[in-house]
Amino acid sequence: MSTMKVRKRSNAPIFWGLFGAGGMLAALFGPMLVFITGIAVPLALLLPADTMSYPKMLAFAQNFIGKAFIFAIIALFMWHAAHRIYHSLHEIGIHAGMFAKLLCYGSALVCTVISAVVLLGLGF
Amino acid sequence: MSKRRPYVRPMGGWWKKNPFFVEYMVHEGTALFVAAYAVTLLVGLVRLGQGEAAWNGWLEAMKSPLSIVFHLVLLVAIAYHAITWFKLFPLTMPPMVVNGKRLEPNVVVGGGWTAAVVVALGLLAVVWRIAQ
After folding, report:
1. What residues in A contact B82, CB-CB < 8 Å?
2. Do B34 and A81 touch (CB under 8 A)?
3. Distance from the A67 Cα atom to the nearest Cα atom in chain B, whole angstroms
4. N or C end of chain B, less CB within 10 A?
5. How distant, in Å, are the alpha carbons of A17, A43, A51, B55, B113 from that of B63?
């Protein structure tokens, strides 16, 4: 008879993987995206004034690659941040219990679902 | 209940005593800015889904001085995230072996930073090309 216990598989690697993927995307694309959407386009620097006009953004969000890019950026940035904030709570003296976990990963999940719904609603 | 009041070492601000821990707390703190930017983009996406008038409203809001300052802060914080993300690679990633030799930590870090600059410039070029 086997004495080995059936151990529950940990879900930690999933959250860690999302954290890593989001961190990598944020490191590679984050600074330039912030510059483009938050500084260059609003101030009409460097890029054409209509870079983010409604027809152009709609076309981008309806394109399969554009859709995937927008979804990956929003969702993975959120999962990255959620994981990092959740694991830093201890450092500032907050016990990271189930409530904190639900709040952190729950926010990421909500943002993921909203972006998926809107992107699918925009059609292809 | 005991009237003894044993000494408990205070832990508040423990990280301020060592520059290494200050750096650690700052790079962990960049997550708040990454989340803030993701939410900003999500609001934009929702407005895009609501039609042209809503999207133009979001674009106008992005032009407000407060938004520009907010994005300058985001830029600094997320750039700091990018720098530390690759700087910690020798600690966070398994050793990378090329031709049977382990890559030097400074090669790994330098490679990461180079990749980040190349990807950022590539992104700007693609956006510039699409926008023409």
Report:
1. 26-28, 30-31
2. yes
3. 11
4. N
5. 35, 7, 14, 13, 30
Span of B13-17, B43-47, B88-92 with lowest mean pLDDT: B13-17
Whole-angstrom Cα distance, residue A62 to residue B132? 18
**Closest chain B CA to residue A85:** B31
| The two three-digit tokens of residue A6, written as one number | 């059936």
Chain A nearest CA to B16, separation (Å): 12
Topology of domain B14-131, CATH? 3 helical TM bundles of succinate and fumarate reductases (1.20.1300)
Query: Between chains, do B86 and A27 touch, taking CB under 8 Å as contact?
Result: yes
Cβ distance A39 to B28 less than 8 Å, yes or no, reads: no
Q: Chain A contact for B112, CB < 8 A?
A: yes
> Hey, which residues does B102 pair with through a beta bridge?
B97
> Chain A: nearest CA to B95, how far in angstroms?
16
Torsional class of B2: left (φ above 0), alpha (ψ -120 to 50), beta (otherwise) = beta
pLDDT in tens, chain A (124 residues): 455 677 788 888 899 999 999 999 999 999 999 999 999 999 999 999 899 999 999 999 999 999 999 999 999 999 999 999 999 998 888 887 899 999 999 999 999 999 999 999 998 8
CATH of span A17-121:
1.20.1300.10
Count of Cβ atoms closer than 10 Å to residue B62 Cβ: 20
pLDDT of residue A18: 96
Query: What are the structural domain ranges in chain A?
Result: 17-121
Give the pLDDT confidence of B48-104 residue by residue, as tens digits. 999 999 999 999 999 999 999 999 999 999 999 999 999 999 888 888 888 888 888
